[in-house]
Design goal:
The protein is α+β, with helices and mostly antiparallel strands and about 325 residues long. Among the domains are: about 100 residues, Arc Repressor Mutant, subunit A; about 90 residues, Alpha Horseshoe (Serine Threonine Protein Phosphatase 5, Tetratricopeptide repeat). The protein contains twelve helices and seven strands. The strands form two sheets. The chain has a four-stranded mixed β-sheet. Strand 1 and strand 2 form a beta hairpin. The longest helix is centred in the first third of the chain and has 29 residues. It is elongated, with a radius of gyration of 30 Å. The N terminus is likely disordered.
């Protein structure tokens, strides 16, 4: 039976028909606008505007920007929190340590027992649980200043007998560092050293000190601290490799000399420094780096240098043409 006038179904059908008509009129107006509006490559210009000042119609559709995280955390150094793009004070040392601990496990719950053991160095006082609850309440006020009373927290949530930072609404610089480091490696692999240098520099610029500095010695954090430090050193080496690939030998020498002095057992750093010195016209210095590395490895570890370093030494002695810098074909094509 047909819907009677005034019934809810008839009203909805009428509304849908009206919306369809509106959409058709809008689409027709956009079609007319697009077909009559001169583009940037057209010889026509709008009245009162030059061709260079051309821009899209004012009614052009706008796509919404992706939502910003509610809170941003900087953990590659002393813990920092940004709410709405502004730094906020995480509070007293133990409260800061609690935040750093939760950030290190972002998206994963941390039990009350584990937190109290870490904050009080394995000897929590009887008041530890009450103090922890006070720290959590304070952090919630700092991280969600506009949250209405009796509204469940969205950032620092209770999870069973523990707490977690919800990774759906927060962003951590550790994640950005990993993304930029991967981008640098990929750019280097595809023969774009300039892009690789920029990516590695963006990754390294995020570091302000030891990762998760307030709780770096915590048992559950220590492995990630070591992992991130290894990735940081690898990113430094990657940046220097990209500098060499781009022909910036002297800059690479300055960077690598300090790096090898601080980390003498990292063989890839020694390899890069030796190659940079050779390309900078310092053959004797390049050989000295390799021989010093061989002696150190034998004295401290009782091992020989890896085959790549032994081959590099022979190539430097022979002045092998393969060691000379050649611009990557992709880079040449890009610049021409």
């Amino acid at each position: 039976m047909a819907d009677e006038p005034g019934s809810p179904d008839a009203w909805r059908i009428t509304e849908l028909e009206r919306e369809v008509r509106e959409l058709r009129r809008t689409n027709e107006a956009l079609r007319v606008c697009v077909t009559t509006q001169p583009g940037p490559s057209s010889g026509l210009t709008r009245p009162g505007r030059t061709k260079d000042a051309w821009r899209a119609p004012e009614r052009a559709p706008r796509f919404p920007e992706p939502p910003r995280p509610m809170v941003e955390f900087r953990a590659l150094g002393p813990i920092e929190a940004l709410v709405g793009g502004r730094l906020v004070d995480p509070g007293a040392p133990k409260q800061r340590a609690l935040l750093a601990l939760l950030v290190s496990q972002v998206g994963e719950p941390v039990t009350v027992d584990a937190i109290t053991q870490e904050l009080w160095a394995g000897n929590p006082p009887p008041s530890a649980t009450a103090s922890l609850q006070a720290y959590v309440a304070n952090l919630r006020r700092v991280l969600e200043p506009g949250r209405a009373p009796r509204t469940p927290p969205a950032v620092l949530r209770t999870y069973g007998r523990g707490y977690l930072l919800d990774d759906r609404v927060v962003e951590v610089d550790v994640q950005r560092f990993g993304e930029q480091a991967v981008a640098g490696r990929r750019a280097l692999d595809r023969g774009d050293p300039r892009c690789a240098v920029h990516a590695f520099e963006a990754a390294l610029a995020l570091w302000r000190g030891q990762a998760y500095a307030e709780v770096a010695d915590a048992a559950c954090v220590r492995p990630d601290v070591a992992r991130l430090e290894e990735l940081r050193l690898s990113a430094i080496e990657g940046r220097c490799a990209a500098l060499l690939a781009a022909g910036a030998h002297e800059i690479a020498v300055a960077e690598l000399e300090a790096f090898v002095q601080a980390h003498p057992l990292r063989e890839y750093g020694c390899e890069l420094l030796s190659l940079a010195l050779y390309r900078a016209g310092r053959q004797a210095g390049a050989l000295a780096v390799l021989r010093t590395n061989r002696k150190r490895l034998a004295d401290e570890l009782g091992v020989e240098p890896r085959p790549a370093l032994q081959l590099l030494e022979q190539q430097i002695l022979r002045q092998a043409p393969s060691l000379d810098w050649q611009p990557h074909p992709r880079a040449v094509a890009k610049s021409s």
